[in-house]
Design a protein that fits this description.
- By secondary structure, the protein is of the alpha/beta class.
- The protein is about 35% helix and about 15% strand.
- It is built from eleven helices and eight strands.
- The protein has an eight-stranded mixed β-sheet with strand order 2-1-3-4-6-5-8-7, sandwiched between helices.
- Strand 5, helix 6 and strand 6 form a beta-alpha-beta unit.
- It is globular and about 65 Å long.
Length: about 270
């Protein structure tokens, strides 16, 4: 069935800036479908981002959008949610913006369990600002600042979100396009901090340096490493070596921050 994406795209903003083969466009289309599934109204929805290739996404979307300072998406989104808790707030950004420069804002948004949805496009690199290594660049892989291979261990974004206190955490890849909108929609409907990590290759800053022959090869790799949670439960540790779990990784119900804050205000005011 054909889908009318143009109704959610800001007039005059296309074509986009993303490189051929970049998965960010796939994620944006998934986000649009998810927002439509949830019946979100444009005037009651805010999409917030920081700086980077992934953070360009809100600029194309015909909603209330905010393009903020590098790493500050979660902080600005928190401000929106505190002032207008009735709004649906969605963050979009990359692994560098979200877990390096914006790492503290990210973990504290998770800790507070603020009712927002954070879509992190993890392409293992700082794509826009020069191809520097990020906290998610795999050990041994090359970046402009690690030309002999990255010596650092990686952040597992989903585990980080769970450990910090997010109450809905899911992961998929840009290869699994039809799963993206389903997971984002479930995150939007969840009352609390939702984090959806999308493994999303960068063919230019990451792929070329690390000798991937083509975008197709990079997509095939995403297909091969992804293992659904249900299937992983039947596999041994040896079989799961080098694999990445996909699907809903964690979900629980817990008091949401803006609700608790409203109750505090009412109590202090003597209501």
């Amino acid at each position: 069935m054909a889908y009318d994406y143009e109704k959610s795209i800001r007039p005059g903003k296309l074509p986009h800036i993303w490189c051929p083969g970049c998965g960010h466009g796939i994620v944006m289309k998934g986000l649009i479908r998810a927002m439509d599934t949830c019946g979100l109204e444009k005037n009651n929805t805010a999409i917030v981002s920081g700086i980077g290739c992934a953070s360009r996404l809100p600029g194309y979307m015909d909603f209330n959008t905010l393009h903020t300072a590098h790493g500050r998406a979660a902080a600005f989104a928190t401000g929106i949610k505190m002032v207008k808790p009735e709004m649906t707030v969605i963050c979009c950004g990359g692994d560098g913006d979200g877990t390096a420069i914006g790492g503290n804002h990210f973990i504290h948004a998770c800790r507070r369990n603020i009712d927002m949805t954070y879509v992190i496009m993890n392409n293992y690199i700082y794509g826009m600002t020069g191809g520097q290594f990020s906290p998610c660049t795999p050990t041994g892989m090359k970046a402009s600042t690690t030309p002999y291979g990255n010596p650092d261990p990686i952040f597992d974004i989903s585990k980080l979100a769970i450990g910090a206190g997010a109450t809905f955490v899911a992961r998929t890849t840009s290869f699994h396009a039809t799963q993206i909108d389903k997971l984002i929609a479930e995150g939007i409907k969840h009352k609390g901090m939702s984090v959806i990590e999308v493994l999303d290759d960068c063919p230019t800053s990451y792929g070329r340096r690390n000798k991937f022959r083509s975008v197709v090869d990079m997509m095939k790799r995403l297909k091969e490493v992804a293992v659904p949670v249900a299937a992983a439960a039947k596999m041994t540790d040896e079989q799961l070596e080098g694999k990445v779990l996909t699907g809903v990784l964690f979900k629980e119900e817990r008091a949401e921050y803006t609700d608790q804050y409203a109750k505090l205000i009412a109590r202090v005011q003597g209501a």
